[in-house]
Amino acid sequence: MHIGAHALQNAVFVAPMAGITDRPFRRLARRFGAALAVSEMVSARPELAASRKTRLRLDHAGEPGPVSVQIAGGDPAMLAQAARANVELGAQIIDINMGCPAKKVCNVAAGSALLSDENLVARIVEAVVAAVPVPVTVKIRTGPSPERRNAVRVARIVEAAGAQLVAIHGRTRACMFEGRAEYDTIAEVKSRLRIPVLANGDVATPEEARRVLELTGADGVMIGRAAQGRPWLFREIVHYLATGERLAAPPAAEVGAVLLDHLDGLYDLYGPEQGARVARKHIGWTVRALPGGERLRCQVNSLHVAEAQRAAVNDYFERLAA
Known about the structure:
By secondary structure, this protein is of the alpha/beta class. It contains 13 helices and eleven strands.
């Protein structure tokens, strides 16, 4: 698959997730074979550009290209300026967030709230495409609500405005993350567009990835929540789609080494204190199905020092391996 001049090695993508897909997570996902890892959404509001949160979200040090940065907002001129600023900082692809259902995003007429204003969708994409020399992609949902699914119209607007790829989460804004993703709308979008279409939602196994691709005819899959605590899922899906064979689950020693590497990346990015707080959820996700995992999760939640947290994780996996 190509996005502009960028040739991607496969069709398995990392979905942008606020508070999750930071630099350490993206680097792990790419290491395990994901073709592209889109950044956490960055607000287009200029007064937030210098905030620590924004600066950390724009840290791509040591990250393999192409670097894709997702921007969020509801004002075409503001989003165009944000796109220019991010390209100057090294973004090679700009992704526009029209899929986030969170209230704090939708309440400022951004994210999936934009799906209710198709004219604004067109003006935003046109403004961003005109502002930058790099490819522009868009992430959407199937519509504002099950009664108002308009993804086909929105996707055609996005394509006509110059976007080079659209990713679709198979739920509406109103559905949030409840129920099951539906793929009929994604299939219809794919049948109407010339640009690549990615299917997103409820892809947690290699078999589900193949099934969704078959159901939708999509050019690729975008994996989000299923990869939390399981970055090797990208390796498993890529291998299965290429060969039809299931890889064995990673042994405990590999899981431990990957988690410790992830922790080191978090401490490096956020600093030891904030890094230890951010790490708690990743530790919990990684060990939730392992023997004694809940006990470790409770233990690390009470630790505020990075060194102690890392030592507890290391000791746990040493005991598990033994």
